[in-house]
Amino acid sequence: MPELNHRRRMLVLAICCMSLLIVSLDNTVLNVALPSMQKELHASVSGLQWTIDAYTLVLASLLMLAGSTADRIGRRRVFMAGLVIFTLGSALCSIAPNLESLVVFRMVQAIGGSMLNPVAMSIITNTFTEPRERARAIGVWGGVVGISMAAGPIVGGLLVDSVGWRSIFWINLPVGLAALLLTWRYVPESRAPKGRRPDPVGQLLVIALLGSVTYAIIEAPSSGWTSPLILSFAGVALLALAGLLLYEPRRAEPLIDLRFFRSAPFSGATVIAVCGFAALGGFLFLNTLYLQDVRGLSALHAGLYMLPMAVLTFLCAPLSGRLVGNRGPRISLLVAGVAMALSGLVFAVLDAEKHTALLFAGYVLFGIGFGMVNAPITNTAVSGMPRAQAGVAAAVASTSRQIGSTLGVAVIGAVLASGVSGSTHTAGFAAASRTAWWIITGCGLAVLVFGLLTSGKWAQRSARRTAERLDAPETAQTVADANA
Fold it and tell me: In a designed cystine with 82, which of 43, 102, 116, 468 is the match (CB 3.0 to 4.6 A)?
């Protein structure tokens, strides 16, 4: 890709951020609309889980394929195709006649979404080649998540209360079309010098693993944890995992290059992404149902209640990007882990739901934690892999996030479904939510521990050793950039 001047690089960053905005806004707006969708479509808790997890599951399954395909045939081409499919999927979701068709149309959205964020991150990585400038750009990218979290609940609440839940999908249409036209006009085409060949077997194994795990967790409360159906899906997940571990190392160009996990920073970023986004997915799902179904707030008032969390995420994301660029990832990760764990404890131990001041304190703490965690995940994961395969590198980080979101909604939803019978208005919600908050606390502690273990000198040495073992000639320089 030709070297661009500063103004053009900023324009490319803004266009890429537009794709993140519609994807992130779609998730936050959807959470606010869940109770309205539940009433109109007569959905159970597991039905609500599927409206979210059908999207994140397909997204997680296809992200690495989209990243490697973009590296091979052209990043702008794949990015534009993703915008078209995502916008079309949004239009279909807005006219879904029932829960089943809504879930299917969310999967169409996800196919397009899989071509957006990792490919956009790949474009950013190849546009901003200087390490500190790239870290700051990623901080801006993370700030867009904060914008979506701040605007999503309010915009979603206004739309749901005034027009209805179907209108939440309309907002993707003008943004998607504008991003498509701007991409065609201003984003240059780029591709890897040597793209990876497709890995259909690896792709099928990933789909089998993620799909079976998610299905087992979501459906276990109604089917029974030891039922033949759930045990069968658990067995499929174990076989798929074994297949990946045995098959992928034998390929010259695997879908998942397991050698990168020998790098402690890269492995740590993967685990932290799963835990951080599991906490976020569970947090949003739990609070949306609590505020509207238990407290009886409208969609708009529920969105306003969660605004402190969104504002802190928005403010802390660019700060975290600057910290990563100037001081490395450790400070951001430690602050994130402590804040997220304390947020969970406020609810689990102090019954924050019963006291509005404590409720807001928990929201503020979680906003700080989530705002700080995103930039170090992205920077470490992308910087620890060869720039020539930037699409695959970004896809691994994005896949980890989506796996975390999928598991967070699945696990927290399963805990709620096990604790309540038929309606979230029952007294069982309080006891079930207590267990859920301990799970979120554990996710925060995991971010803290893995952030501490994988950001020190030992971890940097493991990254250097991994770079030396890899065949890709750019990797050593890339890891050096990461530690600069």
Answer: 116
Residues 305 and 339: beta-carbon distance below 8 Å: no
Contact criterion met (CB below 8 Å) for 89 and 114: no
Residues 160 and 245 in one domain: no
> Are residue 228 and residue 134 in the same domain, yes or no?
no
Residue ranges making up the domain that contains 213: 200-254
The pLDDT score that the predictor gives to residue 147 is 73
Cβ partners under 8 Å of residue 7, min gap 6: none
Q: Report the C-alpha gap between 186 and 1 in whole angstroms.
A: 13
The C-alpha atoms of residue 340 and residue 321 are separated, in whole angstroms, by 18
Query: What is the pLDDT, as a whole number, of residue 472?
Result: 47
281 with 250, same domain: the answer is no
Interval 135-159: pLDDT, tens: 778 777 766 766 776 677 788 888 8
Burial class (CB in 10 A: 0-12, 13-18, 19+), 327: exposed
**Distance between CA atoms of residues 16 and 257, nearest Å:** 26
Q: Do 75 and 209 fall within a single domain?
A: no
The CA distance from 152 to 54, in Å, is 20
